[in-house]
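User: My collaborator and I are trying to settle a disagreement about how two of our proteins should look. Neither of us wants to argue from intuition anymore, so we agreed to look at predicted structures for both before our next call. Could you fold the first one, then the second, and keep them clearly separated?

Assistant: That sounds like a sensible way to settle it. I'll keep them separate. The first protein:
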Amino acid sequence: MATADPTDRINVTPLEAPLGASVTGVDLSRPLSEDLKAAITKAWHDNIVLVFPDQDLSGSQQIAFARLFGPIKERGRPKERRPEIEVNDYESQVMYISNVKEDGKAIGSLPDGEMWFHHDGCYKEHPQRASFLYAIELPSVGGNTKFANMYKAYDAVPEALKKLLADKTALHVYDYELRAQFDIKTGLDGVAHWSQPLFIRHPDTGRTALYTNRLMTARINELSEDESKDVLAELFAIGEDPSVVYEHVWTVGDFVMWDNLCSMHARTDFPAEERRLLRRCVIEGEPTIAG
């Protein structure tokens, strides 16, 4: 007797883009069956980014859904450098991405402006496995999120360059106050940093992905400074090429989950005077595996 495909219970529609799918027919505020979890997991592995429109989620419901895919990562940013709402709310398991201020105090982090492409947590020994972002308030224009398919980016790296970089690692650096690349010449004391393979193997799909990004990848450790700069410029261009990028235009109620190992993301600019509020949580990852 044939076994029913669990994806029959939800609608997974691949986007007309290098990655991503829209998922409908499921209410994420309610507990999910094992079949539904399996269907979502399969769609996630196949499409990297999943968009669930028209969701109505509390913070605790968002956390409960994310926890199905792994342990929730506590906020890494020091408490003294976080908005007050993030110190107490949901035991510091969520991050509010917002430019909104109440009584003159910011209620969230990463307030406004463009943000370069990056992988969440690549500057840590255990990069975040996945991120989950829910749209609550949005500006009239801009503030979109771009996603890059890093499987396709790896495939686009010239063979000669793949051979050169096959066993190489890159230093990733991030300062919580910055939205542009950190200058490593000033020293790394007190700044989060870690080295990762340039090419990583996904633990679930077995596929190889390019693992560099413009915001946080500072240098290739085994190359000279000049050669590293030139090679990274080429890799950044490959990873940001429109042929591998999907730009998500948010609608209130959108809930998006993405795989941080095989994608990177960026934010487009938006009017600073307009309110933008999204709620994020992430799940813990494991050390990366060289691809």
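The second protein, kept apart from the first:
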Amino acid sequence: MAKIGAIIDGKYEILKQIGMGGMSTVYLAMDQHLNKQWAVKEIRLRADDRESRVIIQSLIAEANLMKKLDHPALPRIVDIIDSRDTIYVIMDYIEGEPLSRILEREGPQPEEDVLEWARQLCDVLSYLHTRKPPVIYRDMKPGNIMIRPDGNIRLIDFGIAREYKEGKTSDTVALGTKGYAAPEQFGGQGQTDARTDIYSLGVTLYQALTGQTPSEPPYEFYPIRYWDPSLSGGLEKIIAKCVKPNPQDRYQTCAQLYYALNHYEEEDDVHKAAQRRKLRAFTMAAAGFALFLIMGFSGLFLESWANTQNYDSIYQRAEKETEASEKEALLLQCAQLKPDSVQPYEALIDLYKSDLSFQVDEEMEIKTTLYRNLEALQSSEGYAGLAFELGKLYWYYYEYGSGDTNFVTRMKGAVQWFEDALEYGGEDFENAEMAQVYRDIGRFNEDITMEIEEASDAGKYAPYFQSLQQLTAQMEADPDEAEIVMLEVYRLDVDALETYARKFESDGITRQQMEELLASARAGVQQLETTTDKTDALKADVTARLDEAAAAIERAFTRSRVPESERYVTMQYQGN
């Protein structure tokens, strides 16, 4: 085990031990170069046996998976150090407390808290499951959920996560935690998939609400209201569905589960009884309408009935609706009536952009319907255009995280849609060139931090600069472009110049090229008249950084070079 005060790899000073598991010990460490705290996972390799091989393989898999991911609820892996019989994994230090410790100390948690954690866990699992290929976590349990002081969650320990293999019938190695692992994780019952994580999440929620697990007496899932009659009957049914032994009987996606959690009161017996009473009343009213039909009012009744069933009439109602939540509900209904139509999704995108903010709950609403109809949409003529607009919705409007975290998260959320636009649009797709530009910029920002760590970033900066030039030129050529789009593009330009001016110079970008890009951003920002508090703040942020970007260009072309270590600190400070 590492000693307190020891220096790992010449820069990570061990401060204290903060955790221990069967496979590793975790320490808090200080990066002496960056003056930043990291978590250091120490894995001591034993003799060359099967367990050690699994440890090594899971470590490599974890590192390869984590470096591809960017989500506010996931820690980043920034370094891996192989030191003879020990491997050190350097990752984000997460302030907070494991849910398992909270449950040990306090027992069952309030229903409203558990529901909020469940929604956040659904969101991060949905993010993992919608990667290409999907990432299956496979070890959901209270011990792997960190509750931060602000109440938000972080999901830790990806040691047994895996990428889903299309067409594979079973997993190579059975891994998981007894009591939380789904039946298919053991005994060769099939390949784990998204439904495996839904099972483990259900067990975790069950324990958080009741304090019980099926690995303890009575060794089975009693309804949650057996332990606490005050709990919701709707939530009871949701959890019972999550932990069905047969994956086919569970929720099939986390988007479906998220929707159920947002409407759990509708599953409550009391609510359903009220609905049945309404149904009986409706049946009586319908019988009355039948009588009116006989009496000559058939036209009015049929018109009313058609207005509730016909796609065109519902869409027209949505177009006229001024209340956002009602408009959203009508458009989602249209998407269900015509699974292959891109029209309601395009209208939803416009709706979500109208307040300059694409929220997480809005994302889950559109994704729930979109993924249900994805196959039909992908075969439709307009899918490439829809994917392109979805990419721009994430790129410019997505609100998850803050500051630089949100900046990168937006790009990563967008990249998959730009890739779909290119894949399904073909050579004739009118926005193919711009989709490629967006995709390339997003991929650069996804990969560059790890490539800097691995010293494999040489030659990556000139193509990135050229993509920025293309994006800026395209944006400035559109006289109707939204002000938030213009400001976000200029912020991206200024950030890149401020952070990577020396790298651009090393890759052959001239001083004139950099100064022209900066001059374009300066002129554009100064001429732009903002109309909202959000764009006011964004304009002020970009304006405040213009001079620093100019200074960065100046430094890049002076003989007095800043040491490489200082440049690295600057890049880390900027969050890239």
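Some points you might bring to the call about the second protein. Residues 7-92 form a domain with the Phosphorylase Kinase; domain 1 fold (CATH 3.30.200.20). Residues 163-174, 296-308, 564-576 have pLDDT under 50 and may be disordered.
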